[in-house]
Each structure stands twice: as structure tokens, then as C-alpha cells.
Design goal:
heterodimer, A: alpha+beta, Conserved hypothetical protein from pyrococcus furiosus pfu- 392566-001, ParB domain, four-stranded mixed beta sheet, two-stranded antiparallel sheet, 6 strands, 9% strand, B: alpha/beta, pyruvate-formate lyase- activating enzyme, eight-stranded mixed beta sheet, five-stranded mixed beta sheet, globular
Chain lengths: 333, 364
């Protein structure tokens, strides 16, 4: 932790006017901001100027790295400011670990981290601190379980995911569980899957279902996922002009489901054909149990009066073809 | 141990090494590096840690040693009880449910087993009217580590001395040395999990081969042991009919069907969380290739007509061998029972009565 002496050194650090061009360009080793929306900050700076000075660390060669305030500097650059007032701490007074912990706690006090940012924090910390200490002390602060595989997962997210995937993860468009599955793939496979995920409109369960289907089908058909996703039918479904994104999403999942579960799909089709051919009275429906797993089918009759119910039951009794109902995979009587 | 199983380290939890059971195990593995468990060991989980199957972890277990097999209400369960001697298994079958079921790594051996047996037998002895079917092969393999743990030395005499209990030792190994050395035969069932030759060769990585298992079974049978067999999981794979027929042919060649107390079938099923563990740990596996749907218990199961076909096929061909093999289904519905075996115990209580009846017939 940052001790009192150090925190005083920060407060007492001289405020200097720094040219933005003199500050290291990238986010640097202490930054833990990713996928943020700059607009509110831009609006605030435009309205009242910059209220809090960024904190920089100056190394022995004079290079300036951002400890805290990366977003503010980003905003100022966007607004084409030339310089900014910063607190500057010399490397001799503030170690890299001090800088990292300072920024971590500064952020913790004011906002929540998204999953990419949690990965950044943990990756940076893992460069300086023993794993056990991070697991016991820092993961709970990030609302993460003190669990070594979780630590590995977050570090991997930061280290291996491409920026465009990270952006969608930070924004919540890609679920953490989905990102975890994407990590299991090689880069080419991951990006081919990600492009479809980002172009269509999958909810979390659908994302997982989509990945599950394409992984299974590719394995069963002994081809790569990217090759599978280049299937002309699938490409057409993903890009169809006459449908909106939710419709395309549904069509893609239906197509993959038919390919992954052909026996089930065939049973469903036969069952619907059989029920459809029965000429049931209006307000009467027959439904199969989910996946035909339970043994019984369901008959539903909508009616307003006893007379209407009687009429529908009589109609049902006289319906031809009822004996054909049953498990669609058995021989019909 | 089988030649395929390798242990590389022994880890002992604080205090566990004082236990006599632990001391005797440590004597037998004295050639292996030994270390104390560290506090960070608790931050590990069991998922995907292949290496952890080579580490023996000795610890006292603070939970119930005897517990009902984790069946679900939606399907008919056999009412089995598990004697929890240890968790995780060195055999590393690709489909193994334990990969997802336990969230702790290592081959965990419970060193306080002996002292915890007293209350268990107290419970058993308090209900002489009831038959307790108990096994050690659900959370680990019953015999894979027996040369080290000598579970059979401890357990066989205690079970064999009672009339209302059987102990089933369920294995995929041929490690029967200590079982055969025992004088105990009564109330002991030695069981093998069997599969098609393809599944044994490609998915049951460190197990004994099919013929080795059947040779071991034949030896046990010839030395007076009652045998059981479990085709669980039945795996739908290319050539499955020919594969399972080949296994049945080998059974016919090696064994006398009259001394088999039961043969169970269970089509492959799994908690959804297991799927990605299997994908990650066993890249070439075929066990996930079938058509799986969500079952009534939330587990993934083969689509019903596939299960119907597999069970009917097994029943039809086993019937040609003998019509008294005690066939039963593990975790299936009344409907599937009737449509494949031609009868149903109706519910868990009914299946329990049926299997208890087999125990009475074989052991009196």
C-alpha cells in the first residue's frame, strides 16, 4: 500500500506546466482505463476546464509517464490543447509499484472497472507482486473471487485478446463467458467468430450457443471454424438484405441448430407436419415436450363456455389422424 | 498401479501425516518427493489441471463419508451409496464427470477413513432389515491406487463380515492383486466399467485395455468373486454397434454369465460445464460428437431415439448370452425402461428393490 509519506509526496509534488507532446503517448504501464466514453469528459472540460491535474512520473532520462489522468490527457489531446498542469513526481521518490498502486486505488475510489480494465490491473500487478498477494489482497477489491484460475483468465484477456474484441468486452457486447471461449481459440478462429458476433445481435446465451454450435460442427465435419463460417448459406444468412439484425441472428442459430442436431430437427419437423395435418379446431393446440425428453405431449384447449368446450372435444374425437400422433421417430400405425 | 499411471509427488495437509493410514501410505511412496500443502493450494481448482492427476494429496475429510449417489428426481436412480474414500481419478478418461464435479485438484486420499468407518457400520448394523449397496468407485477408481492405499485390505473384511451390505469395487484397471490376496468373497462385488474397443483405446487414456480388464474379471470370477459390469457411458460413435458387439463377444469368451450380479447401461450424459473442460483437455475426443439435448435434470443427454436404439441394441445382444444378467439402466426414465428393457421398476424404490433382490439371490 502507499504509505502516508508517499501520499504526502504526491500532494506536495510541484505542479508544472507540461507540453502534451512531452508526455509519453501510449497508456503506459500504470494505466487501467479501457473502452471508456470520452464524451462526458470532453463536455466537462469544454464547460469548466480541467479541474484535477494529472499525476506524472518523470524518469531519470526526463521521460514523462502518466500515473493518473490518462483519460484527461486523452481528452485534452482530442481538444487540441497544447499543455496541461500536472503534478510531477521524480522516479527517485516514487517507484513503479507505488505509481501502479496509486492509480489503482485512485480509480477504485471513484468508479468501477470493466472486465478489460480488471485484466489490465491484474496484469500490471502481476509484474510486481507475488500471485498469492494479488489473489488475497487485490482480487477482492475488484469484486473477483480469490481464485488462481480467475486471475489467469483476466491476465490472459488483457494479454491475448485483440483490441476490437476488448472494446466489445468492455462495452458489454461480448460477455465474459464468451470472451473466455474466444480465448480458447487460435487468433484466426477467434476473429472469424468475433466478426459474426459483432455483426449480429446475440444475447449472452445466444453468443455461447453460437460458439458451441460452430465448434461442434467444425469438429464433427473435420474442418476449421473459419472455413465453416465461410459456408455460402451461412454468409447469406448473416448478410441478408431483406431481414433485420434480430431476424438474421435467429436464422443463423436455426441453421446451425439443424446442422448440429439433424435427428432432433427431423423429429420436430415430422411432429409439426403431423399436428398440422390434423385440422384441429381453432383454439386447440398440441405441443411436444422440450426435446421430446418427457414422455407426454400436451393438449391445450381454449374455450369460453362449457358448450364451446364440448363442441371442441367432439370435434377432436372425430379428428382423423389422431392415431398418427406420438413419437415422430417411430413407425406410424 | 497400471503401467500408465505415474505419480510424481505427494502432498500432505497439515496434521494428516500423524494419521496411521497416512503413515502407511507415505511408507509405500517414500521414493516420491514429499511436501507440505501450502496455504495457496486452496486457490486452485480442478478444471483442466492434467498434471494434478499425478499428485497424491493426503488429507482428512471433514464431510460425510457415506453418501447417496447423486441421482436426480427426474430419472430412476438405483439407490446406491458411495463410500467416499477419496476423490479424483488417475485414469483420465476424456468423458469423466469428475473433471467438472469436483472443484479441487489432485488425487485426494482421505486419511481419516478408518476412524470414520465406525459410525458408518454402526448405522448399517442398526438396520439389519435393510440392504446397503455401497461402492467406492464413483468419486475415484476403486482399485487404481489400491497398491498404495490398500483400501481393500481395510474394507473387505469389514464388509464381508456383515449380512446386510455389499461392497462394490468398480474399476477400469486390472489391479486385482490385493483383492485376490484377500480371503473375503462374501458381500464383495468386483465390477468393471466396459466400453467398445474404440472408446477404450481412444477415450479411456490410462486404463487397462479391454482384454486386460476381462482377463482380470475372469481371474476374479474363477477365484469365487461375484462380478458386475457397467456400460456407462455408452458412447454413440462411428461403428458403435460393431464395437459394443465386439466387447460382448469378448465377455462371452472370457466369462461365465451365471456369476454376474448385474450389468448396467447409461448413455453418456454430462453437466453442461463439463463440455468445455473436455474440449480443452481432450482435443481429439469423439464423445461430444453425438446429438445432445437438455435432459429433465438439466444435464446434456443423447436425444431420446438415440438412447432407445443403444439400450435396445445392448439388451437384445446380451439376452443372447443370458437372460439373467440383472440388466438395469442408470438414471433413465420409466418410459425408456419400458421401451428398451421391456419392463420398468417404476421408480427409484422399485429399482432399489430389484437390485436388493439380486444381492439376496447371489449372497443370501
Amino acid at each position: 500500500m502507499v504509505d502516508k509519506g508517499k501520499s504526502e509526496r504526491i500532494a506536495e509534488a510541484p505542479v508544472r506546466r507540461i507540453l502534451l507532446g512531452d508526455i509519453e503517448k501510449g497508456p503506459g504501464p500504470y494505466c487501467m482505463s479501457f473502452g471508456y466514453d470520452l464524451q462526458p469528459l470532453l463536455g466537462s472540460i469544454k464547460a469548466v476546464g480541467l479541474m484535477n491535474s494529472p499525476v506524472l512520473r518523470e524518469d531519470r532520462g526526463g521521460a514523462l509517464r502518466v500515473i493518473a489522468g490518462y483519460r484527461r490527457i486523452h481528452a485534452l489531446r482530442s481538444l487540441e490543447y497544447g499543455e496541461v498542469l500536472c503534478r510531477v513526481l521524480p522516479e527517485s521518490q516514487f517507484t513503479a509499484l507505488d505509481a501502479l498502486l496509486y492509480n489503482f486505488h485512485d480509480n477504485l475510489a471513484t468508479r468501477r472497472f470493466n472486465d478489460v480494465e480488471k485484466g489490465m490491473v491484474l496484469k500490471h500487478l502481476s509484474e510486481w507482486l507475488p500471485e498469492d498477494q494479488i489473489i488475497e489482497e487485490h482480487m477482492p477489491l475488484l469484486n473477483l473471487p480469490s481464485h488462481r484460475p480467475t486471475l489467469s483468465l483476466y491476465i490472459e484477456l488483457e494479454a491475448r485478446l485483440e483490441d476490437e474484441v476488448k472494446v466489445d468486452l468492455a462495452r458489454g457486447n461480448v460477455a465474459l463467458r464468451t470472451a473466455r471461449m474466444l480465448l480458447e481459440m487460435d487468433r484466426r478462429t477467434r476473429m472469424s467468430v468475433f466478426r459474426i458476433l459483432s455483426n449480429l445481435m446475440f444475447n449472452v446465451n445466444q453468443q455461447l450457443q453460437f460458439i458451441d454450435y460452430v465448434t461442434d460442427i467444425a469438429k464433427i465435419e473435420k474442418k476449421g471454424v473459419p472455413e465453416l463460417l465461410e459456408d455460402p448459406v451461412l454468409v447469406e444468412l448473416c448478410t441478408g438484405d431483406r431481414t433485420n439484425r434480430p431476424q438474421r441472428t435467429k436464422a443463423v442459430l436455426n441453421f446451425l441448430r439443424s446442422r448440429r442436431l439433424p435427428t432432433l430437427k427431423q423429429a420436430e419437423r415430422r411432429f409439426h407436419e403431423t399436428v398440422g395435418s390434423l385440422n384441429l379446431p381453432e383454439g386447440v393446440s398440441i405441443k411436444a415436450p422440450p426435446f421430446f425428453e418427457a414422455s407426454q405431449y400436451r393438449l391445450e384447449v381454449l374455450f369460453e363456455t362449457g358448450e364451446e368446450l364440448r363442441r371442441k372435444i367432439v370435434h377432436l374425437v372425430e379428428t382423423e389422424g389422431l392415431l398418427a400422433l406420438g413419437d415422430p421417430w417411430r413407425e406410424k400405425p | 498401479m497400471t503401467g500408465k499411471i505415474r505419480l510424481k509427488e505427494v502432498v500432505v495437509e497439515k496434521g494428516a501425516q500423524r494419521d496411521a493410514f497416512a503413515k502407511s501410505i507415505l511408507d509405500r511412496v517414500s521414493r516420491l518427493p514429499l511436501r507440505r500443502a501450502s496455504s495457496s493450494e486452496k486457490n486452485l481448482d480442478g478444471n483442466g489441471l492434467g498434471d494434478s492427476k499425478e499428485i497424491l494429496y493426503l488429507l482428512p475429510y471433514r464431510g460425510e463419508f457415506l453418501k447417496p449417489c447423486p441421482g436426480t428426481r427426474e430419472y430412476i436412480c438405483c439407490g446406491y451409496q458411495i463410500l467416499n474414500v477419496g476423490t479424483n481419478c488417475p485414469l483420465d478418461c476424456s468423458y469423466c464427470i469428475l473433471q467438472a464435479y469436483f472443484n479441487l485438484p489432485y488425487l485426494r486420499i482421505f486419511v481419516n477413513l478408518e476412524e470414520e468407518l465406525d459410525p458408518i457400520f454402526h448405522r448399517i448394523d442398526a438396520h439389519p432389515e435393510k440392504i446397503f449397496r455401497i461402492g467406492t468407485g464413483e468419486f475415484t477408481d476403486s482399485l487404481a491406487l489400491d497398491e498404495i492405499t490398500r483400501w481393500t485390505d481395510l474394507l473387505l473384511p469389514l464388509f464381508s463380515a456383515r449380512k446386510n451390505v455389499i461392497l462394490e469395487l468398480k474399476t477400469k484397471t486390472d489391479q486385482i492383486g490385493r483383492v485376490l490376496d484377500s480371503n473375503c468373497r462374501d458381500r464383495i462385488v468386483v465390477s468393471w466399467s466396459l466400453n467398445s474397443p474404440y472408446i477404450v483405446a481412444h477415450e479411456e487414456h490410462k486404463t487397462a485395455g479391454l482384454k486386460a480388464r476381462l482377463r482380470a474379471a475372469r481371474q476374479c470370477q474363477s477365484e469365487g468373486f461375484v462380478l458386475g459390469f457397467h456400460f456407462d457411458p455408452l458412447v454413440f460413435h462411428r461403428g458403435w454397434r460393431e464395437g459394443y458387439l465386439r466387447t460382448l463377444d469378448l465377455m462371452d469368451k472370457y466369462l461365465d454369465p451365471k456369476k454376474i450380479i448385474w450389468i448396467s447401461f447409461g448413455a453418456f450424459r454430462f453437466m453442461p460445464a463439463l463440455k468445455w473442460i473436455i474440449r480443452k483437455r481432450h482435443h481429439a475426443t469423439c464423445v461430444l460428437d453425438g446429438e445432445f439435448v437438455v435432459g429433465l435434470d438439466g444435464k446434456m443427454r443423447y436425444f431420446k431415439p438415440i438412447r432407445l436404439e443403444m439400450y435396445s441394441f445392448m439388451k437384445e445382444n446380451l439376452d443372447k448370452w443370458s437372460d439373467d444378467l440383472g440388466l438395469y439402466l442408470c438414471m433413465e426414465s420409466d418410459e425408456i425402461w419400458r421401451k428398451t428393457l421391456g419392463w420398468s421398476p417404476n421408480n427409484t424404490e422399485g429399482l432399489r428393490r430389484y437390485l436388493d433382490g439380486r444381492v439376496l439371490r447371489f449372497f443370501g
